[in-house]
Amino acid sequence: LALETDLRRALERNEYLLYYQPQVDPSSGEMIGVEALLRWQHRERGLVMPAEFIPLLEETGMIIPVGEWVMRTACIQAHKWLDEGRPLRMAVNLSARQLRQEDLAERVRSILLETGLPPGLLEIELTETIVMENAGEAVIALNRLKDLGVRIALDDFGTGASSLAYLKHFPIDTLKISSAIIVELEDETDAAIAGAVISMARNMKLSSVAEGVENVQQLDFLRREQCDSIQGYLISRPMSAQAFAEMLDKLP
Ligand code: G
Ligand code: G
Ligand code: MN
Ligand code: NA
């Protein structure tokens, strides 16, 4: 398969890159963090989106070395921003395969030491579905990560088959409300669900992030409900490191 061969070479050819999407406080507009999103700059296909190649990375196990590259690159970038006086939280997505990796916590620990990033600035995102697939092992793996001092976010929350009672077993810091709910906020039921998740997060001392915020009506709703941060095209599309730097330069 041509794609697989290309993927195998992509790391050594330096074809992967990270885009960064801001997460901002909907009341103050202050930037709280960013999510790192993997892209593949293919010499013929151009910029390839994760949906087109992450499944193959997972099937072949290549997600392990690529995931490590993602983690290291994201930590280096966050440390650079910190040096510039901008302590932005860096959210990194992990796949199911990575969570099952025996030495995951050890590797994350090495990367934190190597890059000098304070662990509290790294937030590891796992989808609700990944965590629930194998809840018993996930609890152990997440606790090991948590012991490093990193933050854990439950991604795509509200659409998987998670039981709320399970939440107390996971050492999580953040609930990321799925864009599937945010896109339907005009619907009373979806608005009720989003509001309930935000207030549940607050009561559990977790932070809440809403994903896929595209319009002012959604922003207003999330501000009223006191969601901690929002992410979406209304604020900014994911940007290359260079575009991100230019945007930061314009901020006060
Ligand atoms: O922009 P977007 O198309 O970037 O990303 C789509 C999905 O791909 C994200 O929701 C996320 O689940 C996944 N993804 C993006 N970057 C990474 C990454 O570095 N690692 C893993 N495992 N998944 C990623
Ligand atoms: O990890 P995860 O699935 O949550 O990654 C977020 C995904 O959502 C990425 O693919 C990103 O490009 C995409 N995204 C970010 N903001 C918006 C938005 O406002 N609208 C839509 N439709 N997608 C978004
Ligand atoms: Mn995510
Ligand atoms: Na998500």
TrEMBL record:
GO terms for biological process: phosphorelay signal transduction system. One of its GO terms (molecular function) is catalytic activity. Coiled coil: none annotated. Signal peptide: none annotated. It comes from the Bacteria. This is Response regulator receiver modulated diguanylate cyclase/phosphodiesterase with PAS/PAC sensor(S). It comes from Denitratisoma oestradiolicum.
